[in-house]
Amino acid sequence: MHRKYIDLQYLVRGSEQIGYAPDVMTYEVKEDKLKEKDVLFYKSVERETFLEMKEKDFAVFFPNDIHRPTCMYEEQELVKKVVLKISVDLI
Question: Tens of pLDDT along 57-68?
Fold first, then answer.
């Protein structure tokens, strides 16, 4: 998850699942790299939902969205995607 950026993820080739959940700010932090890379990892997340992504699909994740991309969907395959990072300061 990020605090400074909105992620727009576009799947060019392949398929994947992206786990996501609202950030309720009560989860135990596994790794905090917000200052260096604007990324935060939690040990576990409750009520995670999986978004099934196929070629030409896109998803938008805001700073209050926990998201876990690149989860295997059906079988292991090569995935090509474009990720745009949009600064929250621009909106």
Answer: 999 999 989 888
